[in-house]
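Team,

Forwarding the record for the chain on the shared tracking sheet. I've put the sequence and predicted structure together so nobody has to dig through attachments.
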Amino acid sequence: MRPDYVETIYSRSIYTVLIKVLSFSTAWIPFSVAECLLVLFAVWILWQAIHGITQLFKKKRNIRNLFTHCVVNVLTLTSLTYAINIFLCGLNSQRMPIADTMELDTSPASSSELKALCVDLITEANALREKIDEDENGVMRLKYSKSKTLSRAYLGSKKIANQYSFLSAGSCNPKAVGMSSLMKFFALRGIFTPFTGEPNVSLDLPPAAIPFVTAHEIAHQMGIARENEADYIAYLSCRAHPDIDYQYSGAIEMLKDLLPYMDGISLKELAPSLAPGIKRDLAFNSSFWREKTTSTKQKVRVKILRAHLKVHDTMLKLHGEPAGLKSYGMVVDLLIAERRLKKSASEERLAKVAPTSPLND
């Protein structure tokens, strides 16, 4: 499938209409419609199971017939769901890469470029951290309530939607998920539901993560399907946002993505330059995901989580992301590319205003 055709015919035309209609239809509902549908679906599955077992005991159906019926239903439902998902948003994974659309050079970065980007992000995050509210433990505290923080996300997303024509702005604000503890169990921070046009965000997250996660799910709503690209658009949205919480959240999340790419020597050199507040926020984030549980419960959780991650990795690959879960960290390529573009533009401006040497006259 040609990316330029998908970009023109679907992403910038059909999807723009679809997302406006879908998101407008659920925007007036204060809770997550997607979450309610998921609960209803789980109840329906349970009812079907009970009904099947009852028929089995009453000898109205044999095991083979019941098994065949279940398999056909599962395959039919899975195929239908996948097809609808592809039509509603899945095709966006086949659109033009935003690196091409924005004319960004994503060639492999050198160690010096990675270090320079890290210095820039640390400088940015340090300056923003000074203006952040803290709790009694010195960890970031949101300026507004979590629900209000979510409702203010559009202040950044609308700015970049007006700036970049390839972004499709929806009408539905992000929705808080009631089953946030369940999302934490599966290491999920948020999810965009194409069937309802809703960006859904877990509220059971470290405060420093909530603004960025919200912007990330909105990026999916705006037609950006690839995870690394959604991270980049989320960062642009946070950077353009008037609220300091969003700006800081974007900077620290990008810094977290970049640190694994740094070599040990550079990390040791740059670590002392991190503001104490940032170190506390990063430490809190790590401890948040290392939940203290009984050994048995932890073992069960790890097994379930591994299975879930394998499914998630497979789904990403089916949606056109060959790197699977690794694609989340590939936002660094886009950050480096943006820095190259800015550096090139700066050099061009300097060349234009630089005085002509008398020796060349």
